[in-house]
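Recall from the previous lesson that a structure prediction takes nothing but the amino acid sequence as input. Here we apply that procedure to MORN repeat domain-containing protein from Chloropicon primus. The sequence below is the only information supplied.
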Amino acid sequence: MVVRTELLGAVEGSDALSTEDLRREVEEIRNEVDLREHARENGYQIVSMNAGEEPPLGATPVNAGEGELKYTNGDTYKGEIVNNLRHGKGRHLCSTGDYYDGSWRFDKREGHGSMVFASKLRYEGDWKDDKAHGHGVCYYPNGQRYEGEWEKDQKWGWGKLEIPVAEGEANVKWESYEGEWSNNAMDGRGRYTFVDGSYYEGEYKQGQRTKGKFVSSDESIEYTGGWKDNMRHGFGTFFQNGVQKYFGEWRKDLKHGRGKCEYSDGVAYDGDWVGDKMQGTGKWTFGGEKYEGGFGDNKREGDGTCTYDDGSRYQGAWKDGKRHGKGKHLFSNGDLYEGDWKDDERDGKGACKYHNGDRYQGEWKANRREGHGVCVFQDGTKYRGEWVGDKWVQSSADPEFTKVFGPGLAQGTAGAKTVFGIQAYDEDQNKRLCGGDAFCCTLEGPAEVHADVVDHGDGTYAIQYTAELSGDYELFITIGDDELVGSSPYQVKILPGKPCPKRCTVSGSGLRSARAGVVSEFYVEARDEHKNLCVGSAPDMKLGVSITSAAGAIEADVEPRQDGTFRCSYTPVQIGFYRIEISSGRDLIGSSPYSLEVEVSSREKAEEPVPDVIAKWGSIAQAEYAADGDSDGWDSEPEEKETAEEKYVREHPDVAVVDNLEDMWKVGRYQAEKKALERKEKERRLAELRQRLEKKYKNNV
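The prediction returns the following tokens.
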């Protein structure tokens, strides 16, 4: 039996309690509860007594209240006490400088309190059984801060740890982990954020990452998969934006095992990896090129087969990424080589079957036949002997026996490619079986033209030249020290090409002026793209000539001539201004269209009165107004009332009202006599038109 002795009495003489009194009352109630729980746990009975009462027989008195305890080691305690036990609120100061300020229960820290160590470690939060337990915040001497759940002085449950990363006293950045803890270590699900903003999110086991995702600060790098010792380990997916994407196995942060990697340049590899390098066996692709076989140090090594994007295929040995050793290669053109390779070239001994039927077996050097070898040509010719630079050793071409053939020896067309050929023969009049002869071809005439010589490598040569100026040339074919070949020089005639409308020229007085009733003419010279006159025959070009005005059209006669020109003639009937358009198909020729003025004949001109400039400009304006072939509305005025005659014209547009077109030239004079007011208005309108048309017709006024 335990007797609780009241040490703290009620405050007398006041109905209202102070804050301190309230605190004490609450603390007494809490202590009462603690005592009852303690008694129940230990089989005691609680008996409350007032002051002056005698405790029951066998009862143990309990003294509770505030006081101070001093310990032999120099520690001191101030606060609430129950039978010399720290119980309730109190502060314990250790001789080492450590101190605790908070709740106690039967001489143990329990409830909420703050513990500060001389080492500057500080904890503030929940306690149980003298240990940090529940929710609390801990500040570490190294600047770290943890807030979260605790169990028996260990971080346990969910919490967040912040870690300072020093970059100078004025600029401190932080790393942090927020997630599950167990036994003072990151354990379970959580997220670790690094100082640069990158983070890992996933599973932990005793402080080590086991499975999760890492994302860099700029999100350009991402890894999802297994981890060991905080390094990528096991199976995982790695993505690096703009560089690569890898699916496969890892070991100690490196690609190791089986995996597939796709690179941004289109390269893909699926196979074995060792120490972040392609090593073992695998498949490699890039565009149309595919390789399957051995790898070493990121390069093809050992036996493997490669199919190239041109369709060729190699099967055999590789070294340092190159064909090296014994191998077979089928080329895209059908050639098949089987033999020795060195540094990606045919080198050593080997046999080659060519697509044209030739077969060679012998020695090779730097991808060429070099040394001793035997070649059987498609025509059955067989050569056994020495080879140099992929050619068999034979004397050079002899200019006397070498033959020249083809149309380019006699004639060509300006601007067109002209060709002929050369078949080289040696001094014994045998066909040359290899190339290398220094032929030179030049045309001399209206211009000097150098020809291109293409060596086919079999003793034949293709010659091509392009002369732009027509005329007579001499063709010189030489070899070596300017020795003439065949029957050089050859006489070559270069003919003009087809007429080109854009290069044709126009001339003649009939382009600009003519007289009524008198035949006028002009000429069109047909020229090719290089401005050569197309002489020798009638020009091979359709030429169209149209002469039109608002008053009507003039028929033109076009006569092609053997000198490469067209004679264009016409006989105008009415005076006035016309437009001449010369074309071939859709192409205009020369400076088309041309402006033509037809005047009266010499006798009529002598009797002609002073020209009416207003009427002249009226005709120009009318021609411009009727450029589309429709002059309706020319004489209409906005406020003019429609007469019966005008109504008839409007309702019958297909009926010609004026039979004599020459009367159209008198419109201005007639209107001036009949309608003076209308004349003034028209002069104003013509003045506006004159400003707009003056530039266009200034050469014809």
